[in-house]
Amino acid sequence: MPAIGLQCRKCGRQHDLGPFYVCAECLGPLEAVYADAGGNPETLRARIAGGPRTLWRYADLLPVAYDPAVDLGAGLTPLVPARNLGQALGLRHLYLKNDSCNPTWSFKDRVVEVGMAAARQFGFKVVACASTGNLANAVAAHGARASMPTCVFLPRGLERGKLLLSAVYGATIVEVEGTYDQVNRLCVEISEEHPWAFVNVNVRPYYSEGGKTLGYEVAEQLGWRLPDHVVVPMASGSLLLKIAKAFGELQRFGLVEDHAVRVHGAQAAGCAPIVTAFQEGTDVIRPVQPRTIAHSLAIGTPADGRDALEVIRSTGGRAEGVTDAEIVESMRLLAASEGIFTETAGGVTIGALRRLAASGRIDEDATVVAYITGMGLKTQEAVEETLPETVQIPSSLRAFEAHVLPRLDRFPAGTGNAARPVGAEPARGGG
Amino acid sequence: MPAIGLQCRKCGRQHDLGPFYVCAECLGPLEAVYADAGGNPETLRARIAGGPRTLWRYADLLPVAYDPAVDLGAGLTPLVPARNLGQALGLRHLYLKNDSCNPTWSFKDRVVEVGMAAARQFGFKVVACASTGNLANAVAAHGARASMPTCVFLPRGLERGKLLLSAVYGATIVEVEGTYDQVNRLCVEISEEHPWAFVNVNVRPYYSEGGKTLGYEVAEQLGWRLPDHVVVPMASGSLLLKIAKAFGELQRFGLVEDHAVRVHGAQAAGCAPIVTAFQEGTDVIRPVQPRTIAHSLAIGTPADGRDALEVIRSTGGRAEGVTDAEIVESMRLLAASEGIFTETAGGVTIGALRRLAASGRIDEDATVVAYITGMGLKTQEAVEETLPETVQIPSSLRAFEAHVLPRLDRFPAGTGNAARPVGAEPARGGG
């Protein structure tokens, strides 16, 4: 069921499908529109269940047809019940959607697969983007896969490692003097003059629909039901919007029972224009100069901020701002309690979740899903200095017993540890 | 169908299940033994298809029961058809099994989930390992998840980033003076004196069985059939052994039709004891001092080398050694052609595949699977210096047209690029 048209989110005017992203009438943002799924929900569910083990199992709900050339296997990442973290926060049914298990290790692979399928359908020959890092990686990798030249634009001064990850896939990397918002404005200008597909500018109505799959998957993985609360990181605000849209569609098409989901948004306190507007009770998103370690969320003029705010308010959610110190603490808490090492954006999400839980705004029996959208190695400098030193020893049992054993052997002898291993002579183990 | 016992791979003697890993009789390595699956293959296939979307869908074929405490969602990673790379190598049906999409981004999550389930079943209270990096990461993460203290032993001098990835999960990190092989010997000694579960030493017969899931998944993802060739990286040789075992079981249980699979092994030339033995036509694996950038494969005395060699020879496969220069070149080729950024070990695999394809030993119509076992960010220094510089510009259209456009706009105007985007006034895109 590819989209049947585009519609302005502001004035409602309909437009034909094409590489358009702003309303010719009012300059509002365009959004993909679908025919009603129509058919039997059971049939649609069965078609999804029988589909590929990627986000393309939801092709019936996406704006473009499946295109194998851009398929790197993104999507259907683990939804993990988080007992330890849940216990720490007083939540009995907490789940983590771990999108760091994607091909370039962030949720951007989802939006790029959908956006690039659209770009190819429209006949573009070069794919580009404005990015804070993760999106560039995803565009570069998928461009390699689809044999299309890619060009990624980033604010100057990002970690060299993040740039190199795009370079290894063969992208042309352009560092632009200025903030992300200036980079983005430059990309808008370029897209008006040159026939390039900027996935998050002129292909945005298609690209952003890929974010819906993070809503569909959670519902399917919960056994075709909706959670009571979700916590979503916000940069442009688009992801939050699309997850909420997905929940709405699932109910409209009869794939899940009607159920109210409170949608909470998380930003870094150092770049929190949506949170500020929420707190001030206004609709006006005032631009800010980002000052946070959460670079991937550092968008001072969020394109979909107003709509995200509307979703948060209308579902009874909240917008929470998280300090850099809380981000680091939350990254470490998540890794140590659940074995998931996330990037700073994930620290923002967990930090917001902690605030929500501490304030008593989430019932302990509620089903809660927090979205972990990227992996920790890309921003490891955020936690590096806070970690304990290693223990260094020579290769001897004595040294182990003197310097290592006391740190770990806190368990009383003979209690429960019945299975004393009976090794014979030394033998090689090997990795 | 948990294992019914352990059997010595050398003398065949049966042992009871328990935390044992060497034969009391001959000191040979122990291996898990199963009852015949017995039932109808259709029933078993349906049970697998209806199971979780993780390696635990194959619980019927693993030695321990499913344990939710150690489940981080490992397994069922993408099997990607590699058209571009296949074309470059003259292979029409090349697939890449991308195990960098695991929770700690390497295949070690598989063996650790199975090994740690066994460790918990046997009542151990501390989980440990000897590691070259990836295994430590997986043990640390799963220990956090299972609320068990972990202690990881590594040769001194590994990249600090690799160590920190284990530290963030809360593991105690011990750097030992010496090579991996010395670290491993120390772990054997410790396991004899202290009741710790070393996943790759005293829990090895269970742990290593997790590697079989890389065989099962490929067969299932190919529509329940076996490939003609597989290329597997070798450190201890265990993974290759277990993938071959999985193919054998699938045929024995009637899950796939009988089919000969040529199993090829890949090592870095700087640490190639199995390759050397293969080339010399001997059964004797002579220990070597590793000298290669492929640290995760740098095991000079491979525990399962002899058995791996036997599998390679008996299936008509080959063992290939790959130079450091080929490793880097292959990492870049894979990233630029297929959008998959792998660590040095993956460069070894692709390097071996290139050699096999170039020598004409693989028919162009054969179905070939290469195993990509880990991700590139963990060893990014290997490619860093070979990558092109970024382009730096001020935020202006003129600068873009002068310095960036000429690099990419190689397509004649007006040919095919019909979809010239019709932007209205500038609007915010946003990430």
Describe the protein's architecture and organization:
The structure is a homodimer of 431-residue chains. By secondary structure, chain A is of the alpha/beta class. Chain A is 37% helix and 14% strand. The first copy, chain A, has 16 helices and 14 strands. The first copy, chain A, has helices at residues 41-49, 83-89, 108-121, 134-146, 160-168, 180-193, 204-207, 213-221, 238-252, 273-280, 305-315, 324-338, 344-358, 381-384, 397-403, 405-408, and strands at 5-8, 14-15, 30-33, 79-81, 93-98, 127-130, 150-155, 172-176, 197-198, 229-233, 262-268, 319-322, 367-372, 391-393. Chain A has a 6-stranded mixed β-sheet, with helices on both faces. A 4-stranded parallel β-sheet of chain A has the order 8-7-6-9. In chain A, helix 5 links the parallel strand 7 (150-155) and strand 8 (172-176). In chain A, helix 8 (213-221) crosses helix 9 and helix 12 (324-338) packs across helix 13 (344-358). The longest helix of chain A has 15 residues, at 238-252. The N and C termini of chain A lie far apart (48 Å). The model of chain A is unreliable at 411-431 (pLDDT under 50). At the A-B interface, strand 4, helix 4, helix 5, strand 8 and helix 6 of A face strand 4, helix 4, helix 5, strand 8 and helix 6 of B.
Can I get a quick summary?
By secondary structure, the first copy, chain A, is of the alpha/beta class. In chain A, 37% of the residues lie in helices and 14% in strands. Chain A is globular and about 75 Å long.
